[in-house]
């Protein structure tokens, strides 16, 4: 009798403990993105303080680093120097960096960039956050690395670093001359991570 | 019971207030179309998760991103996309996570099946336990009077 009771208690408690262990060790604010491995959504965004529009199509054959930021975002301060440094490192090597201002006014963005000592790559304006939604954005900073074929290879949630950027960009530059153009993601790459 | 008309009145007022907050998307449609589009937008936004909140729907969230996402819903519905197509758009961008109600397939079935099984199991447990408690063991004599010992002591 006591044995069967103990077994029932264990059978009830163990799954609950495992469920709690699984649920409580996950960050509820972190959304698993379905984007990596898929073609990057197209965009055409106005350059801040300059004439002209930057679009993803015109960057075929180049690596694009798209960083979403805002003047009200504290973590964006942490990564700003690293992003500017990395953009300088890869200048003229087939890698373009862009900072997309998210949910902010150009005036605030301009003031922030001045206070941070400038930025080595262009800032873009995203009217109505449409590009942010296209990229499944839910906070800033978020950084997307897009390969030469226009495919998202990495999404970073939170501040990025030079080391992280290098670890994803360098392999793309190395494989670039031999790899043929792939218009869409291959089937095995479309699964969610 | 007597509060029902008041509750309905408040709900109607709240719905009216919500529809008043939403601007007409795109070109000015006629009044009838506008309200229908707003109603559809609101219904769909209530089924999608606000991505910058915890446990709030797009419809209930006051955040700027949720406002823009509601505007995207309205734009896409106005462009003739179906509810399922608009939902699929957000699932493509944010994953199935964005659906407040998970689809009833695969691993998600657990969410739908387990509560029913637990309910049935609980009901069965209560039924059999109660029967065991109330049923007297066969051949047992009726319980002796609790007063017997007392009576003897008093005698």
- Strand and helix order of chain B: HHHHHH
Mean pLDDT of chain A: 89
The helix content of chain A, as a percent range, equals 25-40%
Structural class of chain B: mainly alpha
Helix and strand content put the structural class of chain A at alpha/beta
Strand % of chain A is 15-25%
Tell the overall outline of chain B.
Answer: elongated
The largest sheet of chain B, given as strand count, sense and whether it forms a barrel, is: none
Strand numbers in spatial order across the main sheet of chain A: 2-1-5-4-3-6-7
Labels describing this entry:
heterodimer, A: 193 residues, alpha/beta, disordered C terminus, B: 155 residues, mainly alpha, 61% helix
Write up what this structure looks like.
The complex is a heterodimer of chains A (193) and B (155). Chain A has 193 residues and is α/β, with parallel strands linked by helices. Chain A has helices at 2-24, 74-89, 106-115, 130-134, 162-175; strands spanning 44-47, 53-55, 63-69, 95-101, 123-125, 142-146, 152-157. Chain A has a seven-stranded mixed β-sheet with strand order 2-1-5-4-3-6-7, with helices on one face. In chain A, β6 (142-146) and β7 (152-157) form a beta hairpin. Mean pLDDT of chain A is 89; it is low at 178-193. Chain B is mainly alpha-helical and 155 residues long. Chain B is built from six helices and no strands. Chain B is elongated. The interface between A and B is medium-sized, with 21 and 16 residues.
Task: Describe this structure in a few short sentences.
Chain A is α/β, with parallel strands linked by helices and 193 residues long. Helix content of chain A is 35%, strand content 18%.
How are the SSEs placed, and which strands pair?
The complex is a heterodimer of chains A (193) and B (155).
Chain A: H1 2-24, E1 44-47, E2 53-55, E3 63-69, H2 74-89, E4 95-101, H3 106-115, E5 123-125, H4 130-134, E6 142-146, E7 152-157, H5 162-175
Parallel strand pairs in A: 3-4, 4-5
Antiparallel strand pairs in A: 1-2, 1-5, 3-6, 6-7
Chain B: H1 4-21, H2 31-45, H3 64-78, H4 83-94, H5 109-134, H6 147-154
């Amino acid at each position: 009798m006591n044995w069967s009771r103990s077994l029932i208690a264990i059978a009830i408690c163990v799954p609950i403990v495992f469920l709690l262990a699984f649920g409580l060790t996950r960050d509820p604010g972190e959304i698993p993105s379905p984007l990596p491995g898929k073609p990057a959504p197209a965009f055409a965004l106005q350059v801040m303080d300059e004439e002209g529009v930057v679009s993803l199509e015109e960057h075929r054959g180049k690596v694009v680093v798209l960083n979403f930021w805002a003047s009200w975002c504290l973590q964006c301060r942490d990564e700003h120097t690293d992003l500017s440094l990395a953009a300088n490192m890869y200048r003229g090597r087939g890698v373009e960096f862009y900072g997309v201002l998210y949910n902010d006014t150009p005036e605030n963005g301009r003031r922030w960039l001045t206070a941070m000592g400038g930025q080595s790559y262009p800032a873009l304006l995203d009217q109505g956050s449409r590009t942010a939604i296209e990229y499944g954005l839910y906070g800033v900073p978020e950084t997307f690395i897009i390969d030469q074929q226009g495919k998202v290879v990495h999404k970073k949630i939170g501040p990025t670093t030079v080391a992280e950027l290098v670890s994803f960009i360098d392999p793309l530059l190395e494989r670039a001359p031999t790899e043929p153009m792939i218009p869409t993601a291959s089937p095995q790459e479309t699964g969610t991570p | 019971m007597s509060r029902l008309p008041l509750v309905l009145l408040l709900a109607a007022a709240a719905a009216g207030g919500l529809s008043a907050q939403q601007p007409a998307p795109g070109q000015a449609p006629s009044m009838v179309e506008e309200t229908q589009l707003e109603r559809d937008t609101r219904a769909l936004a209530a089924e999608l998760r606000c991505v910058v909140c915890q446990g709030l729907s797009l419809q209930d969230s006051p955040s700027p991103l949720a406002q823009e996402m509601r505007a995207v819903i309205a734009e896409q519905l106005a462009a003739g996309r179906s509810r399922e197509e608009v939902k699929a758009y957000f699932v493509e961008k944010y994953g199935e996570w964005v659906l407040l109600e998970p689809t009833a397939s695969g691993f998600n079935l657990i969410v739908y099946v387990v509560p029913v099984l637990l309910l049935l199991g609980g009901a069965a447990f209560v039924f059999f336990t109660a029967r065991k408690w109330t049923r007297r063991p066969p051949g047992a004599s009726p319980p002796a009077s609790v007063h017997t010992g007392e009576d003897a002591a008093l005698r």
